[in-house]
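Sequence design from tokenized structure. All designs in this work follow the same two-part layout: the structure record, then the generated sequence. An example of the structure record is given first.
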């Protein structure tokens, strides 16, 4: 069992009558970047806190490197941690902040100096050693917190919304930096975010949490393109979810148009067809009678620079979003224009309603 592997075995946590984490099981191999993604209140922080040792589960086990850690206190787990509000100490300068985990352990002075220098170099903060928090930008403070988390060369680092307070550009920059350090050190990172894009760009695997459970777990492209539920489909970006009904062997959508989906199944007479906006083609003129070809009318056209996002009304009041790349010579349809929407069967999926 490699030292950096982490697993949760049917872990449950209740507060009073509320079950906030309900039988979560996951096995994370060493070196994986694993993300818990979900809306506020879905149980991400509680799950991470059980990994950290701040919260003891009511049921189940926390295993790290093959050892049962369920009841081991945080300091016995040897983890690095970065939390959104885990501020750096205001009375310590940058070097002292970063050195802190080694200082409390009583590491030799020379080792502290060399490791602190190395960690600061990794987050590109050399030259900032003697500054205090009030003399640093939000992004720099976050990098100090990151350096402090990795200074002891932990096999496993936990991060709870570490970039939540940063603006978009800085966020992107830090995402790249964290990913780079993680790969360089071969660390297992367990990351919490409610930001879908952040989860998609950074993770090897994502677990989407919904009310204390893992709704789905898999690599970014798989969970994005093959959601198993309408919750996962809608949470991970924009999704068209069209009401459909079974008609003998066929599945029919708005206006009775036959829809053929590449995956999924209808377990009931009614359900949904899922297709992402960027998989829908928009052509001028009336629809030919073919599966997955819907007549519609442009409701809105939003010019977003690299793409044009259309809202299109189809039969029975269905509205679809369609993202069209603003490529060479792309014509932009106008509100009221009659259009045909179409998509490939393999880009759509049947889901329970
Ligand atoms: P997330 O991080 O996904 O936003 P949390 O794990 O923080 O979710 O919270 C999940 C649920 O558990 C929420 O309903 C929250 O109010 C509740 N909760 C979290 N911690 C406590 C606590 N110490 N006492 C009571 N309820 C809590
Ligand atoms: Mg949280």
């Amino acid at each position: 069992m490699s030292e950096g592997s982490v697993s949760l075995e049917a872990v449950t946590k209740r507060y009073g009558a509320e079950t906030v984490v309900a039988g979560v099981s996951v096995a994370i191999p060493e070196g994986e970047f694993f993300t818990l993604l979900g809306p506020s209140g879905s149980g991400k922080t509680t799950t991470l806190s059980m990994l950290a040792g701040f919260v003891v589960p009511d049921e189940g086990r926390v295993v790290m490197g093959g050892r049962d850690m369920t009841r081991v206190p945080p300091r016995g787990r040897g983890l690095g941690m970065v939390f959104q509000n885990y501020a750096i100490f205001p009375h310590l300068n940058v070097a002292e902040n970063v050195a802190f985990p080694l200082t409390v352990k009583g590491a030799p002075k020379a080792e502290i100096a060399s490791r602190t220098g190395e960690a600061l170099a990794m987050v590109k903060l050399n030259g900032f050693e003697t500054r205090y928090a009030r003399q640093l930008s939000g992004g720099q403070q976050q990098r100090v917190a990151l350096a402090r988390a990795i200074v002891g060369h932990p096999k496993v680092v936990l991060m709870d919304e570490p970039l939540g307070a940063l603006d978009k550009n800085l966020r992107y920059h830090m995402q790249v930096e964290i990913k780079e350090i993680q790969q360089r050190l071969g660390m297992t990172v367990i990351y919490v975010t409610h930001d879908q894009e952040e989860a998609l760009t950074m993770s090897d695997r994502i677990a989407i949490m919904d009310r204390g459970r893992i709704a789905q777990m898999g690599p970014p492209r798989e969970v994005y393109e093959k959601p198993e539920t309408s919750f996962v489909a809608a949470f991970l970006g924009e999704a068209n979810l069209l009401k459909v009904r079974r008609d003998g062997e066929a599945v029919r959508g708005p206006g009775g148009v036959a829809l053929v989906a590449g995956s999924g199944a209808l377990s009931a007479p009614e359900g949904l067809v899922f297709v992402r906006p960027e998989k829908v083609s928009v052509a001028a003129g009336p629809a030919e009678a073919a599966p997955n070809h819907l007549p519609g009318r442009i409701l809105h056209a939003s010019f977003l620079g690299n793409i044009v996002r259309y809202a299109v009304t189809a039969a029975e009041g269905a509205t679809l979003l369609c993202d069209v790349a603003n490529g060479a010579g792309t014509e932009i349809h106008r509100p009221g224009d009659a259009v045909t929407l179409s998509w490939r069967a393999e880009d759509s999926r049947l889901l329970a309603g």
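The chain has a mean pLDDT of 94. We note this feature because it recurs in several other targets discussed in the main text.
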